[in-house]
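quick one before i forget lol
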Amino acid sequence: MRRRPLMYFGVDRHDPALPGAVLRSAVHLAADDPQGLVSRVDVVIESDLVFSVRDNGAGLAVDRIRPAREPWVAEALTEMFAGHGTPPAGTGLGMVTALCTAVVADVWRDGRHYRQWAAWQFPPPQLQVLEETEEHGTQILAHLDGAYLGPGAKLPLDPAELLSDPFGHRPLPNDVEVTVIDRRRGQAADVD
């Protein structure tokens, strides 16, 4: 992914649109829930290269799907998945992690809060099991790699860009409400 971002994100490495394409991919992955449980996605742009995306779905699985492998949330953050459909369907969050110095996934599921950290060049550490909770969903906090993206790289200022499909043929589900808070400007916008 780092060698050929055009193939995964629709824009090349030094294109100023690449940070926005990564964020759009994270939003699309959060909203495109196969179980149909996601009705809300909240995006917070913390700075020019740091964002979070939180959904209200069931939460990523935290158990080991395959024996002798990492918990599913760690695999989702670090591996590419073959699948049916057009990109980025079937690719997983690994494509987002690949362009970040670090990604932290918080998962609220089955009465517990879990946290998993990942980075493209390091194996993920052990899944943290945190407090009990009634919440559910997943939040991804991503720190884009400024050294990779180059000088002047920054997330878009127009929240409507998050709804556009980077590949031109897969819109967000109509029943998912997206809210964007841009802390760089101190304002929130509903984008639906």
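fyi The two ends are 29 Å apart (CA to CA).
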